[in-house]
What we know:
By secondary structure, the chain is of the alpha+beta class.
Amino acid sequence: METKLQQLLDNAEIIQASYPEDACLVLIDTEKVLSYLPGTSIDLKIQVGAPISTLQGTVTLQALQSGRFEQEEKDSHRFGVPYISTASPIKENGKVIGVLSSVVSNRRIDMLRSEAEELTAISQEMAATTEHMASVSNIIAKDLQELADESTLLKNEIRTIEHVLSKIKDTAIRSRILGLNASIEAARSGEHGRGFMVVANEIKKMADSSKEAVEGFEPQLKEMVKNIEKAIKTIQQISAHSEEQSVIVEEFHQSFDHIVHTASELSKNANL
């Protein structure tokens, strides 16, 4: 027997023990099976001394025929656990003299692959959710800012109304004074001033009525301004919190993007 084959045959148990997963080993020459060591859960039921024709369709025979390293991955249908078969041709003086093959349990890698794919799916779903949350937060922040702007405009318009009413009140006061002066002059004129007295009295009534209307409306306007200012302050606080939340959600979304990328890489590497 060639030296390399004998060395492998003598150390087959040591080689098998070096695998981190459950494994079975097959050593063949160009004619027959030289050694077979079954694994704990994987047993190919190969007989030592059996002709290599019994290995038809396996990577062992493919490696013997091609002279190249061969590998295939299978699911758990045959042995109850997923496994990877590898076959390394053994050469001496450039000639293939045999093959050392292993069938190794792929349960951990298969589990890792499944969990990586599940993590990828969950992460993608969460990333989409946080992206939607970020979009909604931005819309809310924008709407709140628009509401604050509109409230400020309304407050300014009320201030304008207050200014106009102040002018009306001032005019009413002046009109009343004018009416009093007209009444005095009408009284001095005697019979000739009676008609003018009627006009003077109407002016005073109109002035008093205008002044009372303005004075009755002023407190309401001031209360409206006060309430609007409170609303604006509240809206601005909510808007500030909303913007802060948008930043947090965006950072959260970026973190999930990183998790999705990591999970995808993990899944891709598990499929190698």
